[in-house]
Model the fold of this input.
Amino acid sequence: MSTEGGFKVAVVGGAGGIGQPLALLMSLDPKVSELVIIDLNVAMVPAAGVAKDLSHLEGKCKVVSLTLEVNVDKAIDKAGDVLTGCDLVLVPAGMPRKPGQDRKDLLKVNADIAKGTVEAVAKHAPKAVVALIVNPVNSVVPAMCALWEKAGLDPCKIVGVTTLDVVRANKFVTEITGKPAEIPVIGGHAGTTILPLFSQDPAGRLIPADQIPDLDRRVQDAGTEVVKEKNGKGSATLSMAYAGARLGKAVLMGLAGKPTTECAYVKSSVHGDLSFFASTVTFGRNGVEKIHPVPGSLSEHERRRLEEMTPVLKEEIDAGLEYAKGVQ
Ligand code: NAI
Done:
């Protein structure tokens, strides 16, 4: 790898709704020289087909694939050939929540999926940054960090992807003000734990205070807008792929020696006794280089929301840590 690139990136769940467009966007990044598409043999499209498709795009990026057998314990653990040398592993592999399934059930299913990936990366590519898209991010990230630490690795390499909340907040502010925006979104990545800080951006500050609560709620519930219009046939995939690629590119910029900031959900001590928190993070040569504090100049609304969501996020972090405790 040089300062200009030559990075190897894997997308686990790369044949899925998010995975395919995410793989496309990453393959277009000139810093990526090799892209690995990993998915199950029951995926809607074979991973090999996605890789072949992308391999016809101009450019130097080599695209390879790995197909895992479903229900084979630790199938991904055999992925040494393709994972070795990876600099970044993006993980949109997981199930969406089904009707009647509570958050705890979803955590178990998706944490089990993420666990296989994280253990395999720990073994074959321990220097890689692992970006977890799979929900519930608020709990899966603490769970995977705990496992990563158990393996003697640096938990700062594991990053929860919350970029879609930033992208949505930016878009909604631009729709209202006509101006570009860069709204930090802090806290977590579900419901009220998503806290957009409109006060921290010049365009955000143009929005009258009485409109902020509705806009705040719209950012929290934006995923539902997509699910509704897709008529229950999926959730955000294209915007999520865009957001995941935005985060992935920031990580690669950092690895290439050009420190870059994005919001992300990471192991942190910036807010009270919460051990995980989304805030502005600077990515550098080793992954997360600096976790920026919560700005001191929050609005009254933001201050109250932060206080209200803290116990909610704490409970979701604890659920993840509890999962990790039960893992051999
Ligand atoms: P999808 O079902 O279209 O794709 C998931 C892919 O993961 C499938 O191709 C499946 O075969 C694959 N997969 C499942 N288990 C695997 C394993 N053990 N190893 C490798 N691949 C595996 O789902 P979609 O829409 O792409 O969503 C994926 C995840 O992303 C869900 O958990 C969803 O909740 C989450 N999500 C996260 C967002 C965020 O902002 N962080 C936003 C939207 C979705």
